[in-house]
Write a structure and sequence with these properties.
This protein is α+β, with helices and mostly antiparallel strands. Helix content is 19%, strand content 29%. The protein folds into three domains: 118 residues, Alpha-Beta Plaits, CATH 3.30.70; 80 residues, 2-Layer Sandwich (Alpha-Beta Plaits); 58 residues, Alpha-Beta Plaits. The chain contains eight helices and 14 strands. The protein starts with a strand and ends with a strand. The strands form six sheets. It has a four-stranded antiparallel sheet. The protein has a two-stranded antiparallel sheet with strand order 3-4.
Length: 275
């Protein structure tokens, strides 16, 4: 998805003026001036196709995601540090990394502000089902499990279906009653069925989640560092420390977020793409 649009400066000026009036300013001496402006912001958002598996919640290193449930999808909160691990970990690619840019050029005769929104490609971790099983002896909200399965691997079937497979599920089947079935060849191990189950013992899942794929590194300019300790104080994983006036970065702990680069007052830390 790539979206671009413009906003006339006169419309923006009118909106700011209206806000000024709301703040008990009479607006008589209101003047609106804007210098050249260019800003880029990284946004991480959850798309409606979220299957409520909460894999992102478990993988987020800073607890910045509100868990999903049967009624609502997961939500990225203000605690997000833009490490992109949730984007990599979502089994159904429902979490999107978006670049949002705003540009204003004083010399542009159109006198507009330009907005650009674009999806950013991101590497994806391996999420794989090793084994999955159903405990047919317990009651559960099987219809919800089937409804939210992204690959239709989880279905509800009648007795004849299991008879045709010569499959013994450990209980006596009743005619005209539906029972859960998981096609293991179609299951991707997302865990949505297990996560939304009202019975904690209804579904057992063993899955593999591969290592994080780092597409960025943190570049350190030791000569620019002023030893303010802001990077160390704000690193959410304790990956950065100052030792004898030098910034030391533990790459195994570093999640490549924006906290150290955002707080560095002299630009001694920079997040750069791996070529």
């Amino acid at each position: 998805m790539n979206v671009s649009f413009i906003k006339q400066m006169k419309n923006l000026e009118r909106e700011v003026l209206m806000k000024s009036v709301e703040l008990d300013d009479d607006g008589d001496d209101f003047q609106f001036e804007l210098d050249d402006f260019n800003a880029d912001e990284e946004i991480i958002a959850v798309a409606p196709k979220c299957v409520r598996c909460n894999t992102c919640v478990g993988e987020c290193p800073v607890s910045a995601i509100e868990p999903a449930n049967i009624f609502k999808i997961a939500k990225i909160t203000d605690k997000c540090v833009k490490c992109e691990i949730c984007v990599q970990s979502c089994p159904v690619s429902a979490i999107k990394l978006i670049n949002n840019s705003v540009i204003y050029n004083n010399e542009d005769e159109r006198d507009v502000i330009e907005y650009n929104v674009a999806n950013v490609s991101c590497p994806h971790r391996v999420v794989r089902m090793n084994s999955i099983s159903i405990d047919y002896s317990v009651d559960n909200n099987w219809d919800d499990c089937a409804r939210l399965c992204p690959t239709n691997a989880f279905t509800l079937e009648f007795r004849e279906f299991f008879d045709d497979l010569n499959m013994d599920i450990g209980i006596e089947l009743i005619d005209d009653e539906l029972y859960p079935y998981i096609n293991e060849k179609m299951c991707i191990g997302c865990g949505a069925c297990r996560e939304i189950s009202l019975n904690d013992f209804a579904i057992s899942l063993d899955r593999y989640i591969g290592p994080i794929v780092h597409s960025r590194n943190v570049e350190i300019n030791q000569d620019s560092c002023v030893n303010c300790y802001l990077c160390e104080e704000n690193c959410p994983t304790g990956a950065i420390e100052l030792v004898d006036g030098e910034v030391r970065l533990d790459n195994d702990k570093c999640i490549r977020c924006v906290e150290c680069t955002k707080h560095c007052p002299v630009g001694a830390l920079k997040r750069v793409n791996i070529k």
